[in-house]
Amino acid sequence: MTVNRIVRVFAGFFVLLSLGLGVQGSPLFVSADFLWFTAFVGANLFQSGFTGFCPLDTMLKKLGVRETCESC
């Protein structure tokens, strides 16, 4: 897996998880305050689209995850 794919998977997972924990109709509901985390993930995705800065992207590159897929 490449850095971009992992970032997309993490972002999608955290949005779905925080919605599950924050929406009252969900069987996973804990508190509506989890919707702030959904907003944080969305804002981070929005700003990274303009600036190119993504904390997870930086961490994955330092861990040695490939940036591109040579076999694709």
Task: List the main descriptive attributes of the protein structure presented here.
elongated, 3 helices, 0% strand, mainly alpha, 72 residues
Give a description of the structure.
With 72 residues, this protein is mainly α. 62% of the residues lie in helices and 0% in strands. The protein has three helices and no strands. Helix 1 packs antiparallel against helix 2 (35-51). The protein is elongated. The mean pLDDT is 93.
Largest sheet geometry: none
* Helix/strand class: mainly alpha
Oligomeric organization of the protein chains: single chain
Overall body shape: elongated
Number of strands: 0
Query: Termini, distance in Å?
Result: 11 Å
Q: pLDDT below 50 for ≥5 consecutive residues: which ranges? A: none
Short description:
The chain has 72 residues and is an all-alpha fold.
Fold topology:
Elements: H1 3-22, H2 35-51, H3 55-62
Helix pairs in contact: 1-2
